[in-house]
Amino acid sequence: MESILQGICPCVCAVVCKTPQISAPSSDNLRLKFGLERLKKRELTISETIFCASQRPRQNPSIRKEKPIPQNVDFPPILPKKKKKPFPIPFKKIQKAAREDKKLAQMGIEKPLEPPKNGLLVPDLIPLAYEVLDAWKVLIKGVAQLLHTIPVYGCSECSEVHVALEGHQIKDCLGPTSRDRHSLHSWVRGSIDDILVPIESYHLYDPFGRRIKHETRFEYDRIPAVVELCIQAGVDIPEYPSRRRMKPIRMIGKKVIDRGGFLEEPKPWRLGNPSSPVDFDTYRANERFPPPLSEDIPRIAQETMDAYDFVRSGVMKLMKKYTVKACGYCSEVHVGPWGHNAKFCGAFKHQWRDGKHGWQDAIVDEVFPPNCVWHVRDPRGPPLRSALKRFYGKAPAVVEVCMQAGAQVPDRYKPMMRLDIIVPESDEAKLVA
């Protein structure tokens, strides 16, 4: 009997040996006898009858447990301006990859490249790029229409934005004249650029061609970084052509040994008529789109909310394949394998770098910033106050505008909005622990 059980599970044999012999037919003996009879018939399996106490039941790896949504989360941290941004990839991994590339270059071995790192397109991401561009257009149109009915204010001294009938009274202004105003904001009427922060990038006909120099920076047009990312991912726009390679580029280390030659880049079309508006730019969007009808506002708000989520998720997927660089000191973004050489970085210690940008891998918040604002539960109620600052929540500016227009807020934004916290009165706030 021991030899049979040892072949199945050693711990079961230890349990059986220590069990005293009982003459009366107890329930344990009956179960053991029933198990031995099935063993003789070779019908017993470990998962059916005998379980080892030291082994846990196996779970189906295809079933993933959904993580519960937290009740409250902290606000996005405000990075200090007198310090370089943290690397999104650990610096040790960057050094390790550089050592491997250098080792291959010293041996004269070409660097193995896959699309799109070798200049070719990824066919599976071309439909996604078109969908992201279409959602970007819907987002601009929806925000421009909603701003005719939803009031937005921006501080004239800092980058603070507020969505309500009047500006808040929270004393957190960091502008140059904030001391004279006791850190209160100087509110003016906002625009679409206060909701969708304009992050522009140079449009490159050939991302693997000549790098932009400081003297030639005005020969290239600047467009939204989201649009440039979609163009390099396969979207064809007649006004902004892009080179499509049929043969991959070859590199040894950091040196390109075969790029298929240099082609003459077409001149930017907007230099001839800079006032021509396009549907994927926020320039004069409030004038291009008229105010919506009152019964269409909830529908437009929901479409804008869905477009915002799709653009954000689509940009994240495209950035996993296509390289996007961001300056570690300022908000400059460059879509391409290498950053440009234009010297207009005026951030921390730019004199040491001669105005050059400190390029590193970008994250989605640098290409498509959320621009979080204070969440207002009652837009027609009293303005927010500094005494109750810790009881208020925040939300992306687009989400706040769409929510006040009648759209349903996705669950992932609710923890930061702190909807479950009851805002006390001013005299009750002192009694809260």
From TrEMBL:
One of its GO terms (molecular function) is RNA binding. It comes from the Eukaryota. Pfam families: APO_RNA-bind. Residues 154-239, 326-411 form the APO domain. InterPro entries: APO_dom. PROSITE patterns: APO. This is APO domain-containing protein. It comes from Populus trichocarpa (Western balsam poplar). The lineage of its organism: Eukaryota, Viridiplantae, Streptophyta, Embryophyta, Tracheophyta.
